[in-house]
């Protein structure tokens, strides 16, 4: 009896660098470094810049990427305090890909949730995150090997 759970919409714990290369397969975005299709990701890092109520840049130590925060701020204006330069945050983002006129795919990270991890008791949030992502990568590899 199989206890398989559909995790297709689960947010994968990743490093932003794992999103660097994306290819289209049968209309779906595939990330070779993740070895799977992904709809949502969970990232942690420092907000390095905020552009109004539209975009924040986040640096997780492997890459700096922009997050679209417009809808999140519209739905939950209180999170604006967390989205300030210098804050260490955890975000779950939906991945969307748009094709530009030249046919180039553009990756959009739309923030769905954010929480700060820079309170006095959170000193270990950053080093623990690196361990959590490494563990998640190892689990994905072992599950991938088991299904082949």
Structure commentary:
There is one protein chain. This protein is 19% helix and 39% strand. It has two helices and nine strands. Strand 3 and strand 4 form a beta hairpin. The chain is globular and about 40 Å long.
In short:
This protein is 19% helix and 39% strand. The protein is of the alpha+beta class.
Write the SSE topology:
Layout: E1 11-13, E2 23-25, E3 28-31, E4 36-37, E5 40-51, E6 55-59, E7 64-68, H1 70-75, E8 88-99, E9 105-116, H2 125-146
Parallel strand pairs: 1-5, 7-9
Antiparallel strand pairs: 2-3, 3-4, 5-6, 5-8, 6-7, 8-9
Q: What is the H/E string? A: EEEEEEEHEEH
Shape: globular
Mean pLDDT: 85
Number of helices: 2
* Spatial strand order of the main sheet: 5-6-7-9-8
Strand percentage: 35-45%
Terminal CA distance reads 19 Å
Rounded to the nearest angstrom, the radius of gyration is 16 Å
Helix content: 10-25%
Structural class computed from helices and strand pairing:
alpha+beta
How many strand units?
9
Low-confidence stretches: 1-6
Summarize the main sheet. 5 strands, mixed, barrel
């Amino acid at each position: 009896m199989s206890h398989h759970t559909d995790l297709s919409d689960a947010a994968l714990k990743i490093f932003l660098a794992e999103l660097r290369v994306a290819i289209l397969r049968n209309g779906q975005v595939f990330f070779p470094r993740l070895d799977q299709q992904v709809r949502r990701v969970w990232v942690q890092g420092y907000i390095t810049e905020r552009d109004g109520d539209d975009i924040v840049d986040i640096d997780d130590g492997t890459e700096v990427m922009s997050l679209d925060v417009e809808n999140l701020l519209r739905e939950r204006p209180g999170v604006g305090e967390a989205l300030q330069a210098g804050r260490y945050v955890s975000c779950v983002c939906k991945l969307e890909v748009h094709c530009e006129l030249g046919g180039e795919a553009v990756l959009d990270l739309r923030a769905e949730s954010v929480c700060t991890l820079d309170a006095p008791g959170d000193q270990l949030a950053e080093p623990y995150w690196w361990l959590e992502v490494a563990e998640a990568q190892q689990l994905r590899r072992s599950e991938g090997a088991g299904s082949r």
